[in-house]
Records
---
Amino acid sequence: MEKKTFYITTPIYYPSGKFHIGTAYTTTLVDTIKKYKKMRGYDAYMLTGLDEHGQKIQEVAKKLGRTPKEHVDIMAEEAKKLWKLMEIEYDDFIRTTDEHHEKAVTKIVEKFIENGDIYKGSYEGWYCMPCETYYTETQLIDGKCPECNREVKKMKEESYFFNMKKYQDKLLKLYEEHPDFILPEFRKNEIFSNFIKPGLEDLCITRTTFDWGIKMPNDPKHVLYVWVDALTNYITALGYMSDDDTLFKKYWPAQFQVVGKDIIRFHGIYWPIFLMSLGLEIPEHIYAHGYIVMKDGKMSKSKGNVIYPENLISRYGIDATKYYLLRELSFSQDSLFTPEGFVERFNYDLCNDLGNLLNRTIGMINKYFGGCLKADLSVEKDIDKNMHNFISEKINLVEKNMDEYRISDAIAEIWNIIARTNKYIDETSPWVLAKNEEKEYLSLVMYNLVDSLRKIAILIMPFMKNTSNSMFNQLGINDDKLKSWDSLYQNNCLKEINVIEKGEPLFLRLDSDEEVQYIKDVMHGG
Ligand code: MSP
């Protein structure tokens, strides 16, 4: 039987500077969902890449004494290096300077023209250079850019426009028929009341103020403004409008497109309208996450509060870094990054709760059974049944949350399983069973601990693969079937238990003061 497809995308990032933890968060989230879907039997395909055109990139390159092309080539290597370091398993990395993308975008714009969706006019508005966005007078906040709070400039230029107004009713219908097209719901409501209800504005799609971009067909003085070039990456990467569109036929429409809250407007309005104009299907969900913010507000180099993923990974490892990001960022709101919070999660959640559970279990199996045992499952008591039931319920909740893309909530449920298993050790008091020579029941308790750890290792696999593998190794579980998602509901699949002689700590406890200081130092560029 053909597997069900699942197409998931990150935004394509501006290669304007070093990629920070915000970008790493989006990519990790998407990668985790992709890996989860794969474990659930989907043919999952992940796209990421770079948004390489535009005035901002042209200016950054100039400042660095590079041509725009030299600059984006360097940045593309940096992005790929970072994703490799973070063990991100993307299927394609698109760059908007890729020839096949540029050609396809030209054809897409020609199709817009053919449909009568483009007209020439002149645009006057308040322009925010860093955001590359025009705003109307009413959109400004205290006369400044509503997105980044920086100065805006009044500008007028001859431009091509996309007739968005024409699609107002169709867009409203889409929102009505697909109430969960934009997630979370309150973001949809925001877009609706701020941009759709007052009436859509036509979108200016070209600029004459810079030349680093794809030329307007038949009018090369005009360069396509980034959003037409950028948004269409999700389909050109699959071969739309190219000779080979096999992937496009297979994977489009996307199931889940992840963006930050600042760009949900573009994805919630312009993107579906472009697709409507092209006669293509609309993605199932566009999801906007909140921001990672610092105690003193948004991350910025000038404030000296930027966190780069490499600094955390080199000291605490990939798994701990991903764990923190995914656990700390909620489905809908902004989340605060604090060095104290990072160290706390490392010490409590990873070292104490998870690491110690594995270590204690392996220690006891070595001590009481010389590392090897077979259990008689028929001696099960209510305590054991209770734990099994609890874990099965929680596995269900992990799945439900993962399926609803609430990754942080799913991880919290996994940690409930860990806490419950730790409690099971206290409830059954294996040291008392050993003293009383209740070997038969003691072996069942050990069996249950190993089986619970096996399930935990499966559940964390999409985002903590190294830890998961280390757990399987230490527990002596080699059979892939016992590592599969399907085996989560089986309680009796381990024939014999054979753990390693001496457990290795999954995470070494951190000295809080020292590590908080380290993180603060690297935030200030130390
Ligand atoms: N190039 C556009 C996207 C085009 S998609 C067709 C862009 N690039 S960006 O590099 O500025 O931002 C990329 C993503 O990173 C956005 O989704 C943005 O929300 C996200 N983040 C930037 N800073 C962030 C945080 N501090 N926290 C979380 N995500 C953040 O916009």
---
Amino acid sequence: MAKSPFYCNRSEAFEAHDDIPLSPKDAPTIGEVVYRRYSRRDVIRGSLGVAAAAALFGSGALGADTAAAKQAPESRFDFDEVAAGIDETHHVADGYEAQILLRWGDPLFPDSPPFDPNNQSPAAQLKQFGYNNDYIGFIPLNEDGSQALLCVNHEYTNEEVMFPGLGRQDKEACFSGMTKELVDIEMAAHGVSIVEIAKQDDLWKVRLDSPYNRRISSLTKMSVDGPAAGHARLHTKDDPDGQTITGTLNNCAGGVTPWGTYLASEENFHGYFWTEDHDGACTPAEGLGGDQAESYARYGVPALWYAWGRYYDRFNVDREPNEANRFGWVCEIDPFDPASTPVKHTALGRYRHEGAECLLNKDGRAVVYCGDDGKFDYVYRFVSKGTYDPDDRAANMWLLSEGTLSAARFNDDGSVDWLPLVFGENGLTPENGFASQADVVINARLAADKLGATRMDRPEDIQPNLENGRVYLMLTNNTKREADDTDTANPRGDNAFGHIIEMTPPDGDHAAAHYAWDMLVQCGDPSVAGIGAVWNPDTSESGWFACPDNAAVDSEGRLWVATDQGEYWDRTGKADGLYAMETEGDGRSTAKLFFRCPVGAEMCGPCFAPDQETAFVAVQHPGTDGTDKYPGFERASTFEDPATRWPDFDPAMPPRPSVVAITKKGGGKIA
Ligand code: FEO
Ligand code: CA
């Protein structure tokens, strides 16, 4: 879920491509040799990084044992993988059905107007499925899970393929085409959809007359609790008490709590803030924010990715300097009460929240894992003060209001230290700019800087696996990391392909102060030596991937990984997709491609129904990312001229982000 619209990454988009030395496809790679010759721990414990191994053994040593015949380990996943590649549509493994369940603009209520892309309105959008579906939460309504609430985030909008006659709205043009009407539609297209679905004759159907259906948007009133509630830095003209926030935005990944609520994370909130103090290329002046300048700089506020602040003072930091402090939180939504007010839990800290996977620790406390999706940013964990009460759901809804937020330090010896972000401790004191716990959570990034947390390669989803007791951390990429600024947990400079770390809490205690960690895989093409990918050598040509982003664990306790390569899919020549990832036994660190996205899309929200008979995936922004590199098209998509019109393939329809329900033909469990 990268998250920023195409134009938002302009500077990245124009970075020169890597000059990757190629080696013959049949030559063993450094990663392969390292994998075979050394245990995983030897490799990740740093004395033996990939580059070091190459230096130690030289190219002559690389052929050593690749010829040895080896029995492929038995896969835990029973399907024939999809061939990697890229085209205008989706592909699912043979024997599976991919049903387009919910598309941008689909009705959510009996009185929703039909979707008309040429006559959009904010009022219509507020009754329709929103844009850019991301995280998917599945909350069963009956015992067999054939009726359920699907909770879906709508992360952001892509104006160039959303609106007719507009084209790309980039920063250089300062969004000159963005009228107030279009901004209002964008604001309505963000947020969350809650929708009841039911399975009938092996097909999922949306129940429009469900009392639970709800659209939450950047206009929905939310309450705020925890250490920052009511704090002066949350006071605005509209909300002088700092207790009621209007809306949520850039909801990326999320979570479902054990008490059946939905957690929607706020990720790239900084992009929505505006200033008039910018140059002609919409680059904000330096030093904005007055006495909050350090915080503004650390969070990238304002970034001017959207024109909302041109029409709404609250998104203009010149006029409302505290509004940006009211975003970057985790929101808890009770999907069983459509009249309920969502709550922003400030105890979980303010940063670019990728997700919020929640579990109950063995002592009954709630634990939430969160990544901060920034280059060199941190991995966080929240542990509640109170414990879960199976008989008191209302009380459980306060569990995320109070507890301990920590940031992770990954040590070279394979251990992880959780560093508590507590006011008054370890330098989080007034002399260092922290006057209270409110300051600590509002400036969680600055607090974690102070504690010496490990600067990671863009932490995305963090997925606990309750079956094996371990926790999987997706690190999507970081091309800004220099070769002389690596560490054992982020071992590659110019890390364009990402990696996955496995954390192990001792005795299954997710509140422990120290964990162990291990590398599961270093992503990228294992046949290109210079990339330094480390996969199980049995990984197939279609099975390796780049840029892990979202993850899920299925009902069988197996890991699935969704990818987002953004503009740079051409570095692999593969569209994004959903991969089955082996974590156990001889097959560990192999992957298999199960579902492939259409061109320009990223893969989000993998989610499995509890009976394992349906996999829900979210295809986000089809037809947008990197279409200038799509052979035969080679230009930016617009509404009128998109690289694909997935999923409708109707000349009257633009591409539409959609949730897809995947089932096995004839029924049965997935994979
Ligand atoms: Fe919205 Fe970090 O992806
Ligand atoms: Ca997840």
